[in-house]
Structure formats: structure tokens, C-alpha cells
């Protein structure tokens, strides 16, 4: 019996999940996806994901891969098959067969996260689950000057989560920019990988410094200080999306 490697792109509303990774207790995205695949295959199927999103974090372009022993199903048919079983807060967007060596996590060459801020006096209830509401008007120019200081290779200890198990806090950020999109202020950041809570800690710090009118150069001082206490509180999970993942094969 042949074995094929299938790559699938997922989107999900992370509000009612305890993150991506399967846990002993709590509903997770990985668990519901593997349960759906088990129903299709009639045996357990393990999936690998490009990013292990935290509790409450969403995805517009999470990438997974899994191995199938079903010869009769074309790769693209896994999309409707999964969607016929998955809960409505998780959708498969597309599926394709890839080389047997492909790994969704280890082969990713770029990950893009987007964080949505709603900077208006009142937040409509239909946006509440998918943004971070602030009641003041941020200064876009100042925020982008702040963001420019995190581009490049740096030690991001100041923006890591307390208890982060990664032995090295050095990461490379390829781009970081704020822009307006409809009623939202969006922070887009790309890099090969990120520390736990790193993006949300950056956003929380940028917004706090901007609201206080602090000079953008303070971000550089926080980076160089390598001390989590120098940065601000973590921004809420509701505004964060894993937007897309890039691979060498496209």
C-alpha cells in the first residue's frame, strides 16, 4: 500500500480553542483535525503544523501535512472531505500532494503574522473576537518608526514570554510594518520563526509607548536591555492571525 504526503491549508477561529497543540484537557485545533482525519481513514492520523498558535489566536493560512494510505482519493478531495466533518470554526482551504520529505514546520522559510487593532471609541460586537480594541487614535508614523527597530537579527528576550523554554532568544525579523486596512490598524510581521508571545508582546509595547508619546528609540533600548520587565503587557490573543506560510516550492 502506497503512502502519500498531503499538504493542507487551514483557516480557523481560535476563540474557542485552547491553541493548536493537542492537550490532555481542552479543545484544540490539532485534536479536531486529527479526529476528522481518523474518521476518513478509519485509523489515527498525525498531523504536523507550520505554527503552534496559542489559545485564542486565529489562522488564515495555517499549513499542515499528514500521510495518507488512501490510494483512491485525489489530494484535492481531502478539502471537502475534511470540511464535511470539521466543526464550522475550522475550514480546510486547499489540499495537494507534496514530496514525501515535506514537513510543514521544518520546511517553512517564512511565516507572516498579522495583528488587528480597532482604534475607535466603540467596537462593534461582530469585531470583538478578531481584534484588540483601543479607544485612542494611534500615531501610524510613530508606530512604524518603532517597528523599524525590530527588523533584523536581534536577541528578543525583552519580548519573550516568561518561562519560554527556547534556549536562544535570537530571531530574525524580515519585515515589520503598521498599515490601515478598513477600520483596522494592522501590524504585519514576517520572519522565519518567532518566540512564544513575541508578536503580541511587541504589539503591546508599541501601543503603550505610542499612547504615552514615548520616543520610538525606546524600542531599541528595550531590545538591548534583554529584560522582559522593560516591555509592556502582552496584547490580547484575539487580534492575532497566522496569515500565511511560505515554502521553497511555493
Give your account of this protein's structure.
The protein is α+β, with helices and mostly antiparallel strands. The protein folds into 2 domains: 4-98, 2-Layer Sandwich (Alpha-Beta Plaits), CATH 3.30.70.580; 110-246, Alpha-Beta Plaits (2-Layer Sandwich), CATH 3.30.70. Helices cover 20% and strands 30% of the residues. It contains 5 helices and 10 strands, in the order E-H-E-E-H-E-E-E-H-E-E-E-H-H-E. It has helices spanning 29-41, 78-83, 140-148, 198-212, 218-225; strands at residues 4-12, 48-49, 58-68, 90-98, 110-119, 132-134, 152-155, 170-181, 184-191, 240-246. Strands 1, 2, 3, 4, 5, 6, 7, 8, 9 and 10 form a 10-stranded mixed beta sheet that branches. Strand 2 (48-49) and strand 3 form a beta hairpin. The longest helix has 15 residues, at 198-212. The two termini are 29 Å apart. The model has no long low-confidence stretch (mean pLDDT 96).
**Structural class of the secondary structure composition?**
alpha+beta
Element order, helices and strands?
A: EHEEHEEEHEEEHHE
CATH architectural label of the largest domain: 2-Layer Sandwich
Poorly predicted residue ranges: none
Descriptive terms for the model:
Alpha-Beta Plaits; 10-stranded mixed β-sheet; 20% helix; 250 residues; single chain; alpha+beta; 30% strand; 2 domains
Task: Please summarize what this structure is.
The chain is α+β, with helices and mostly antiparallel strands. It is built from 5 helices and 10 strands; from the N terminus they run βαββαβββαβββααβ.
Topology:
Elements: E1 4-12, H1 29-41, E2 48-49, E3 58-68, H2 78-83, E4 90-98, E5 110-119, E6 132-134, H3 140-148, E7 152-155, E8 170-181, E9 184-191, H4 198-212, H5 218-225, E10 240-246
Parallel strand pairs: 3-10, 5-6
Antiparallel strand pairs: 1-3, 1-4, 2-3, 5-9, 5-10, 7-8, 8-9
